[in-house]
Amino acid sequence: MHFLLPLLLQAYSPETEAVMNRSRREKQEERAAAAAAANPAAAAPAREDGKVSIPAKFAAPFQACLDQAIESPDAGIAFAQKWRIEGGSFYARHCMGFAYARAERWTPAIVAFEQAAEEAERSGEMVEAARLWAQAGNAAMASGDLPKARGDFDAALARGLPDGLEKGEVHLDRARALVALNEPDAARDSLDVALAQAPKDPLGWLLSATLARRSGEMSLAQAHIARAVQLSPDDASVALEEGNIAVLTDHEDIARAAWARAVKLAPDSSSGKAAADNLSRLPIAKAAK
Length: 289
What we know:
Tetratricopeptide repeat protein, TPR-like_helical_dom_sf, TPR_rpt
């Protein structure tokens, strides 16, 4: 399989790209909606689940602002600006960042999220500040400013997120930035934490398998891609990487099946196209006797 050996040396392969470029919009909306739907009683410390209740005076306008931003980013920005002047605290800046992100205006989104994080810190809301630094990091990733993204993710982790999914996903996002910055050892450190904190996120296992494959740690790559397949069997990027690892470990039948699945799942995606190209370079399978 000499024609596929360059897979081991790829610094930025299609399956890695799928992780690096994954959309954050749905996750941002989900988190923002969850925050707005939290118990709107008076301000309270972090609950046992790690979430912070929104004070009643902010809950309704925050949800209204998010709704405006989802319907029309410009309307959301206008709502947030007015609300900020009227005393919307860091919640108004949070919504402003969300609205800018919806419009893919990444530079002002970064500024709004960072300002919201700083204001949350001044209010003593360190967990909320951490979440806002993480959103600033994702906006910086989207803008292509990788050093800023890493700095914002570091700031988020330094503010003390509780153990669990959120901390794991910030470590995963940090690992994405570090992969793009060609710092694989540091990325591995964050990935190991991400896998422990967010073991049900298939993207963590996918990126971990890809890094392991690129460094020649094939046993680790096999174990981690198997977990990604288990968690996300219908993801073309996962199927592509499953095939890449299989062909490099002399399992051509598994590689062929995995790449065919990637093509079937998403023929027009980068993963589907890469899988189709790999299939075209495999020897034609012999007919069964």
